[in-house]
Design a protein that fits this description.
Bound molecules: 5-phosphoarabinonic acid
CATH class of the largest domain: Alpha Beta
Structural class: alpha/beta
CATH topology of the largest domain: Rossmann fold
Number of helices: 18
Distance between the termini: 54 Å
Strand order of the largest sheet: 1-10-9-7-8
Strand content: 5-15%
Number of strands: 10
Helix content: 40-55%
CATH architecture of the largest domain: 3-Layer(aba) Sandwich
Number of domains: 2
CATH superfamily of the largest domain: Glucose-6-phosphate isomerase like protein, domain 1
Radius of gyration: 23 Å
Shape: globular
């Protein structure tokens, strides 16, 4: 089970301070669980690991199997909470070079993510990759109206229809959207796409354990039952454990203590490139949930040891604005032993017989000590290994801690009013009907 170790941060967050923060943390947990706080119509994710649609779950598994059988490639079209969870999971669970592996070894379709930018280069390059390949599309949008995925979907729907005809294309399009509303829902109904539901009470960034994440995760051959079981066991632990041993409550409290000490930036650190998108998912979850009403902790991330050769300097010696949360995968997914060489020209023989992961862990321990000495508090989050179960635990842990943390800080964790501002301006500049007045205002500026 996932562990949070605050021992390296004791000089910044004492046990007494943690004890003093207990009352407001427990109150925030109660507000979350009783549904008495702001945004309480978006709490479906709390019970999701136990209380999910079992019939739909089976359809997800069947759809994943069909896609595996009839497609060389699955395109996952979505943005924000409608793609980051799936991408985080697929990179965490699969081969580092998943798409590049020979098909006989990979056995499951290549996966590409699109609709998460508005780049004509990116979309055109992807069209080229698809030439001569059988492909399917999972279009994911809760609102069904988001511009980025809608543009990508137009392009790849047309490509599918050209290749397989309208009926053939419809059998290769899987739409994950609202059960009743939105342009995508209407289109899916009209065209007869297979549909999956983003529940009303689950917001985008809390939706990885719904069809939003589960279908693209299952297509890579991952065991989504174990993912849900991991989340369920974490849920049980977080609901039952006392404050002193409850990792989500401890994390929520410790980071809010940091905020009150003017540590306004939290840097999420990993030592595994395959965890890069866990950081991206985490940033979206915390940034959109907490960054509002002119407050919050700014969530940033680095990939170590890569970024020790860039951002490492600032973290060690730059302005003291930040604290770090380090994700450690205790048991590496691969064992690679360094060989001894006859002539030690590169001076690396002192490491002969050691594993590469042993070196990685030494880098991590050395960095935690150095950063702590440089007055950067470090929280350590440990997971045993990279598998579906630990990932389910991790997803649920962060979601729960985020809800509690936002309530401690007095903000609504489940809305994102700020995301709308750029959209309104963009629509006005593009001449979308209904935005004429705003277009005039922007023209004056
Ligand atoms: O967390 C959120 O709610 C957002 O990041 C959304 O997921 C994102 O804006 C995409 O929205 P939609 O799924 O409606 O296309």
């Amino acid at each position: 089970m996932l562990k949070l170790d605050l021992s390296k941060a004791r000089q910044f967050v004492s046990e007494e301070e943690m004890a003093n923060f207990k009352a407001q943390t427990l109150l925030a947990k109660e507000i979350l669980l009783k549904g008495s706080g702001a945004g309480n119509d978006f709490l479906g994710w709390v019970d999701l690991p136990e209380n999910y649609d079992k019939e739909e779950f089976k359809r997800i598994q069947a759809a994943a199997k069909k896609i595996q059988e009839d497609s060389d490639v699955l395109l996952v079209i979505g943005i924000g909470g409608s793609y980051l969870g799936a991408r985080a999971a697929n990179e965490f669970l699969n081969h580092s070079f998943y798409n590049e592996l020979p098909k006989e070894e990979r056995k499951t379709p290549e996966i590409y993510y699109v609709g998460n930018n508005i780049s004509s280069k990116y979309i055109s390059d992807l069209k080229q990759v698809l030439k001569g390949k059988d492909f399917s599309v999972n279009i994911i949008s809760k609102s069904g109206t988001t511009t980025e995925p809608a543009i990508a979907f137009r392009v790849f729907k047309a490509m599918l229809e050209e290749k397989y005809g309208k009926d053939g294309a419809a059998k290769r399009i899987y739409a994950t959207t609202d059960k009743a509303r939105g342009a995508l829902k209407s289109l899916a109904d009209e065209m007869g796409y297979e549909e999956f539901v983003v529940p009303d009470d689950v917001g985008g960034r809390y939706s990885v354990l719904t069809a939003v994440g589960l279908l693209p995760i299952a297509v890579t051959g991952a065991n989504i039952c174990e993912l849900m079981e991991g989340a369920a066991s974490m849920r049980k632990a977080l609901l039952e454990q006392d404050y002193e041993v409850n990792p989500a409550l401890q994390y929520a409290a410790a980071r809010n203590i940091m905020l009150r000490k003017d540590k306004k930036i939290e840097i999420f650190v990993n030592y595994e490139p395959s965890c890069h998108y866990i950081s991206e998912w985490w940033k979206q979850l915390y940034g959109e949930s907490e960054g509002k009403d002119q407050r919050g902790i700014f969530p940033a991330s680095v990939d170590f040891t890569t970024d020790l050769h860039s951002m490492g300097q600032f973290i060690q010696e730059g302005a003291r604005l930040h604290f770090e949360t380090v994700l450690e995968v205790v048991e590496s997914a691969a064992e690679l032993v360094l060989e001894k060489e006859e002539i030690d020209t590169d001076g690396m023989n002192y490491l002969a017989g050691k594993t590469v992961d042993f070196v990685n862990k030494a880098a991590m321990q050395g960095t935690i000590l150095a950063h702590t000495d440089g007055n950067v508090p470090n929280f350590l989050l440990q997971i045993d290994k990279q598998c579906e179960r630990t990932l389910g635990e991790l997803f649920y842990f962060f979601e729960f801690a985020c809800g509690v943390s936002a309530y401690i800080n007095g903000v609504n964790p489940f809305n994102q009013p700020g995301v709308e501002s750029y959209k309104r301006n963009m629509f006005a500049l593009l001449g979308k009907p209904g935005y004429e007045e705003l277009a005039k205002e922007l023209a004056k500026k």
